[in-house]
Amino acid sequence: MAELELKPVGTRILTDKDNIVDMIEKYTKGDIGPDDVVSVAESVVAITQGRVARPEDFKVCFLAKILCRFVPQKGSLSSVYGMQSLMDAEGKWRVLFAMIIGMFAKIVGKNGVFYELAGSHAALVDDVTGTMPPFDKCLVYGPLEANNVAEEIKRRLGCYGAAVADVNDLKRALVVGASTGLDPKKLAHILIDNPFGNASQRTPIVIIKNYAAVERRTENLLTVE
Amino acid sequence: MEILVTIVIVVIIMAIAVWLFIAKQGDADFEFKVNERTEFIVVDQTEKTATFSCKVAFINKGSQDGTIMDAYPRHLLPYEQFDGVEVTSRMELTTAPRTDNYFEAVIIPKGTGGSVIVTVTFTAKTGTIRDALQNLYDLSVDMPIDIVYQIVARTPWYIHKARMIMTCDEINRAMQAKDTAKWEG
């Protein structure tokens, strides 16, 4: 009986010279079946899309210098460049609005409002040190058109589905893009233990083996019951 | 008019509150303790080359976490002062040794620190390294090394330098210690 299995796949360092779908095809050749789901780390997708920037290249505005002070220092937006990158991506007035509302929400005990209002990039920007060399000295934005990337992976590889995911060792998993028919929450739950490993392990691809077979079996069981 | 004055006063009070908050929050503040570094020792020697290394501690004595984005040693030995050797230098974190002279950006939490290993290699342009370094000693040439480090924290990035001096006496002592160890070994 087929069981769910997570299979990390190593690659060389990928850069903006690479096409992520070509690379996944190259490094997973022969490993992917029709019941499998291919997941790829969002930061690597972003890097192949050229969505990286050096702090030296930012023009930091006064507002970014102030607002970054109100983000706890473990967060990527706590540096002026993290905050400026979000403002460049989502607009500085939107970020200011989100910060003000977020602060009031926090006072009344509701967390996470800032990230809900500040735009999708708020949770996806990685500050310096967020990725491995040679990108450790860069900020990495979230990927563009993650759903389309996932669809393209699925189409090219003939697998059951594909997803672009942001997972870390702090038990945080977020599927930022998925091919049609996949449940992002279910995928996030499967990836919660960070099978991608840390950056230095260079395994930005994880094949979720037998995903469809296990899903079918679960559905059959539910139908019988 | 009264409303306008009230708005102005509220804005001023808010600006002062934000300024006080930022002032109290502070920032990261790094120091490379070059005056407390270890003595250079010879870690490798051939007929033409001698490689020395020492450890330098650093600390983030500020009130916020900070990131050392890049750091490298800059040795300063112009040929006008001494033309007998070629010098290369590199630096690595003690906790993450590597030999490619690439410094991987690292977050240093407030109140903590670490240390780096500074490695300097002298290559004799002519003759043996022993003769070249003896000549350096005879001419009493000391070599400054700047530890150049780029920091990013709550404020925009900046680059600082911390200078240490690799003295000819120290080089001579290290070479003699190496000889003594060789004979004793």
Structure write-up:
The complex is a heterodimer of chains A (225) and B (185). In chain A, strand 5 and strand 6 form a beta hairpin. Chain A has helices at residues 20-27, 42-48, 62-67, 80-90, 92-107, 113-117, 146-157, 184-190, 211-224, and strands at 5-9, 37-41, 52-53, 139-140, 161-168, 172-178, 205-209. The mean pLDDT of chain A is 90. Chain A folds into two domains: 5-50 and 145-224, 60s Ribosomal Protein L30, Chain: A (2-Layer Sandwich); 53-139, no CATH class. In chain A, helix 1 (20-27) packs parallel to helix 7 and helix 4 crosses helix 5 (92-107). By secondary structure, chain A is an alpha+beta fold. Helix content of chain A is 38%, strand content 15%. The longest helix of chain A has 16 residues, at 92-107. In chain B, the strands form two sheets. In chain B, strands 1, 2, 3, 5 and 7 form a five-stranded antiparallel sheet that branches. A four-stranded antiparallel sheet of chain B has the order 6-4-8-9. Chain B contains three helices and nine strands, in the order H-E-E-E-E-E-E-E-H-E-E-H. Chain B has one domain: Immunoglobulin-like, CATH 2.60.40. Chain B is elongated and about 90 Å long. In chain B, a hairpin with a 5-residue loop joins strand 8 (143-152) and strand 9 (158-166). Chain A binds chain B through residues 55-56, 60, 65-66, 68-69, 73-74, 78-81, 127-129, 133-134, 136-137, and chain B through 18, 21-22, 25, 64-65, 67, 69-70, 102, 104-107, 152-157.
